[in-house]
Predict the structure.
Amino acid sequence: MADAGLISVIVTTYNREDALAAALRALAGQSDRRFEIIVADDGSQTDTARVIETWAARVPVPMKHVWHPHRGFRGSEIRNRGIQLSVGNLCVFLDGDCLAPAGFIAAHRRLAEPGCFVTGNRILLSAGLTEAVLANELAVEAWGVARLARQSLGGGVNRVWPALDLPLGPLRKFPRRSWRGAQSCNLAVFREDLNRVDGFDASYAGWGLEDSDLVVRLLHAGLLRKDGRFATGVLHLWHPQNDRSGLAANERRLRDVLSGNRVRALRGLSTLGDEVEAPLQYVMK
């Protein structure tokens, strides 16, 4: 194992201020404070910036906000802009509607290992429980397994086991060459490895499979997958299904990557243009 040093948490968001506020609240409660937050904003309106500015005064770590104009779902590109702005050795990707328990950063630090990337998992909240969490500012990320189990019985959450903390040891490398199931709502990759594969591929238009593409190319580059289950689980707030009109084209893109051995993104970090305003940075004293 190696010390990950400063960790950069890259949080993607688009026009969902209440969920983002909850996600930042959860990050403010982390037991490990050697991290920075980069809010990667896929073209939100001004209310999102106000939420970020408010929470920057409460979160005990540096926070940055990078934004580009909204032109449909551009998750890959805005994550790349977050990577570009990051200064940490390890990048942890988190969606702006995912709530991280207090030990989330510490767990990713513990699992970080050269030559590996770490894939985490999530508990999905129902629409009803999500509404209650946001309306009443419930710190659901601090709920224990017993309370989540009661919610599971009532349909409030889809499962409980991601909240468990189990020492799996060498079993964490069991899916070492598999790309399936890895998602960018809970994914940790060393910055040098992101540079090697040129980050996410912005060729993926609209929602879907850009995270699978990144994982496949990391595997092509010789990295191993390390399983973060039973250590890094997050709670994912409910949201309506994303527009999937571009999914078929993205599936073709992914098949092309799977059929070859290409490592670098077609439109990655190295192709970013000057579309963003100067990123806002909030440095806590």
Observations:
- The longest strand covers residues 7-13.
- The two ends are 30 Å apart (CA to CA).
